[in-house]
Amino acid sequence: MVYLKTVEAYGFKSFADKTKVEFDQGLTAIIGPNGSGKSNITDAIRWVLGEQSAKSLRGARMEDVIFSGTEKRQALNYAEVTLKLDNSDRQIDADAQLNITRRLYRSGESEYFINQTKSRLKDITELFLDTGLGKESFSMISQGKVDEILNAKPEDRRHLIEEAAGVLKYKKRKKETASKLDETMLNLSRVNDIIFDLEARVEPLAIESATAEEHQALTQEMTEADIQVTVTDIQALKTEYARLDTEIKEFNDMILIKKERADKLEKELSGLNDRNTVLTESQDSLNQQRLELSTQLERQQGRLSVLYEKQDNQSQAEARQKKELQKLESERQALQQADQKQSGETAELQTELKQVRQEERSAEKKLTELNSDVTALIESARDQYYQVLSEQTSARNELKYIEKELTALERYFTENQTDSHDYQDMQREHEVFEDKLKQLEKDLMTKRTAYKECLADIQTKQTRYRELDDQLRQGHRYLDKLKSKYQSLTAMQSEYQGYYQGVRLVLREKLEGIYGAVAELIDIDSKYQTALDIALGGQLQSIVTEDETSARAAIQFLKKRKGGRATFLPLSTIQPKVMADSMLNRMKQLEGYVGQLSNLITVDPKYASIVRNLTGLVVVAEDLESANNIARQTSYKFRIVTLDGNIVNPGGSMTGGSVNQPSILLRQKEELEQVSVQLSSYQEQLSALENEFNSLKSEITDAEIRAQNLQSAGEELAEEERVLKQQRDEHQSRLYTLKAINQQHEERLKQKNEYETTHQRLNQSISENEVQLKEIEQQITDYQLLQTDARSIEKEVNATLAELRQRKVILEERLKYQRDKQQTNEERLKQVRAAISDLEAVDELNHIEEKIAALKEEIKQSEEKLSVVTQQFDQDRRAAEEVAAGIREQQVNYNELMRQLNNLENGVGEMKGQYSRIDVQLESLIYHLMEDYHMTFEAAENLYPEPTDIDAARKRVKLTKLAIEELGPVNPNAIQQYKEVKERYDFLSEQETDLLSAKDTLETIMKEMDDEVTARFNETFSQVQSNFAQVFSELFGGGNGEIKLNSDDVLTAGLDIVVEPPGKKRQHLTLLSGGERALTAVALLFAILKVRTAPFVILDEVEAALDEANVLRFGQYVKTLSHDTQFIVITHRKGTMEAADRLYGVTMQNSGITQMVSVDLNELNHNEIKELTK
């Protein structure tokens, strides 16, 4: 039987030291005073079994379970609890010794261990499923749990019976099975939709496929006949082409001779024309110079005439200026003498005026001093007297007001007394409230922030979860498409689809000596595929054999099977075609050259001669312009293929236009490799997405639990904050009232002190002012005597001052007249000096004569230059006439030669017209071979020999064409599409069968689980129902107790409890007393334990509400049950302690740290036990 051996705790709540509590089988009681940490043992066991609610552990947040420190001990950084269970009988699917550990760090990180192996919470939950253990099981009951059981809804109470019946694991498996069934139904729906679509396509595709096969056979027959006719027509055209080519060459030789003579005449004409141009340009230049010199000479002569006229005018002006100059000079001297005389008179007047002004200022100053000194003294004394008197009056008025206020304040202090100590005590209490509130707000903000972050994290994860779900659904659909495509491509490759009938038949048969088709044996970069496809065409289907014998055997095989035709390339006879190194090096230097086609192909060296034979003389160019240039430089000896599929053939003809995609034979292998790589890569991506999907699903569950815990903790903190704020507000209101009274008292006390100081100061000021008033009155009397003496002196000074002022006015008028006259003379003097200066200007006449001499010299030089230019112009004109005569003679000869050359070229043009028509016909036929059959003329000539009857062949082509037209439009992909759709339809039909079978299996499993749950639940409920009635009667000493289901559906019915205590009527659980409620819950627990024993049961003060008699019955009943089940009871009731086999005393000697003391009661006698439990 499983039982709890030890609980080891370190850092959990009050267990600051590592504490080990050992338990034996039987009944163990844990006792101790309130607050000593008894219930922390229960919390530790519940916590290690996975409890996630901090509230259930009597904390605000999960970190509160970590020891937070005391005054003498520091806080710890983590909490750890380990349960050790004896599992020798393997009742739990684990080792014989089972250790469960949980560790929590302050960072919030949790760790779980099973036998020292790191595990998940889910692992621990599943380990104890249906064992009677767990954080919410019936094996751990506290006072709160009693009410929770009795107040729970009937549907929630049913959980107790389910756990006792051991059906929780079945319900969990049913839920998982239902999830699988939903997924299966979804897949079945998808498969049915696809099958419905495919069914509508299979039958029409079958008809189209048969038509396409008939079309292929007719097309093969028509192709062989058409190629034979086309090859014959090309050969005939080539013969005519060669004849015309010879005639054109002969005419071209004659034209070449004529052209050389024409070039020589053309050069001579060019030389004469150049000479004529030079002479013409020289004449134009000289003529221009003549005109410029003539114009210049005319301008110079005009300027000379102007200068002569200016010279005459200047001579007359100079005579008049000399007379005016003499007159102005005389006036200037007279003005200067007058100015000197006036300056002397002005200076004398200014000196006399200055002296008079000084005497006037002296007299005014003396008069002012006499009046102002005495008057100022009197006014100052009077102002001072009035100021002191005003201060005296203000002081007396203020003194009366202060005396009145002091009387009122004395009366206030007598009537109102306040104690400041009351205010200070209340203020300290208020600070404590504020500190608590701040801490609560901080904790609440932390919780809310963590809750919001947790919700945001959940939302982000759920968004990603939905994205991953969509990606996985789409990914699986795309993976199915890739798999289908891969299977289809593999089938096409193995069936040689796309090959001619004869080629396909030989390759499928795997005949001896057959190595494969050319398309199978080579590889080439995708950008060169179009060039290779156009260059080889049908030769890609040529079959490589070991030797001629193998080829003959294969041909014989085709004849025998009537399987069509094929071209064979024996390794023993096919020789490579090699291009000269000099020619190759020459082409490499040309723009647009890509490479020799054989060098761009990857092939086993064994087949290199085949590749060289087919492509050794084929060159790849970037575009048609480059291809034309390379062909010209190589004299049209090689076939030049462009990257986009145009061809310049040997001889110069070109084939081109739009092209389809490269041959399926080239694309098939590359596409299969690409799909294989995509398939592998996509499977890895899907695997990674599924891992992320599963991990995210687990993370969302953990985050939702964490968010729920955070929300609960936040709500508890918010309620505590609300209560504390209400208390704070009431306290603050009282504090404000007391503070207002205290402040008023302090202000009035301060005001009283200020009034007393002012009263003293005012009395002193009044005394001082009375003395000062008497002194000022005496000063005013003295100043009035001095004022009488000053008035006689004032009269004498006023008479002197009047005389001085009259004299000053006369001098100022004379000085003004003198200054005006002097200013007029100065202005006239300036005018005379300016006029003299103008008359003494530079001699202009001499300057004009110098200009006339210089201009005459310039005119002489211009006349000499004009003579030289005129002579040179006449010489060039005569030379030009001679050159023009030579040009006319040579032009006549040149025109005759060009007439002869034109006749020859017209003859060549006519022959080239015939040549071009043949070329167009050839190109059309070759293009017909290439475009319709992907075959060059050389390949067709080798594959299809000339028919014995060309007319019969032409007729066969017409008949097969008519037959093909009668078939109407044909879907060329119908054969392959039918095969793919049929295979897909068959595959999905098998999947539908499998999914239907899986659905039936899952539904059967769910029904079997429902049957098992129903049977187990009914059996357990029946036993618990019987046991509850018996235990209730035993515990209550009579009465009736019954449990029953509230509906007929056993799988969903709730559990009702109906009781009838002794001596009372049947009543609702809410009407029972606290003791009756506790005993009812205990009776239900004991009834369950009789049906399904739990490894251990923990009861935390469940009997606290019972009276002594019921406690004794409770203790004895637990004692009886402890023979089969281990009981750990936290109690403070004597009856329970006496029934215990072992006591654990819990103390808290050091504040905040729990210590344990154990006593084995089996070793004590009855009296010792009674003494211990007092």
What report would you give on this structure?
The structure is a single chain. The chain is of the alpha/beta class. The chain has a domain at 502-658: Alpha-Beta Plaits, CATH 3.30.70.1620. Helices cover 70% and strands 10% of the residues. It contains 22 helices and 24 strands. The strands form 6 sheets. A 6-stranded antiparallel beta sheet has the order 2-1-4-5-6-7. A 6-stranded mixed beta sheet has the order 8-21-22-3-23-24. α5 runs parallel beside α14, α5 packs across α17 and α18 (974-1036) packs across α19 (1074-1091). The longest helix has 248 residues, at 168-415. It is flat and about 155 Å long. The model has no long low-confidence stretch (mean pLDDT 77). It is found in: Cytoplasm.
- Whole-number radius of gyration? 66 Å
Question: What characteristic shape results from the CA principal axes?
Answer: flat
Structural class: alpha/beta
Strand content: 5-15%
Oligomer: single chain
Terminal-residue CA separation: 34 Å
Mean residue pLDDT? 77
Give the class-level CATH name of one domain: Alpha Beta
CATH topology of one domain: Alpha-Beta Plaits
Largest sheet: 6 strands, antiparallel
Per CATH, the architecture of one domain is 2-Layer Sandwich
Instruction: List the strand order in the largest sheet.
Output: 2-1-4-5-6-7
Q: Uncertain regions: pLDDT < 50 for 5+ in a row?
A: none
Provide the helix percentage: over 70%
- DSSP strand tally: 24
Query: Number of helical runs?
Result: 22
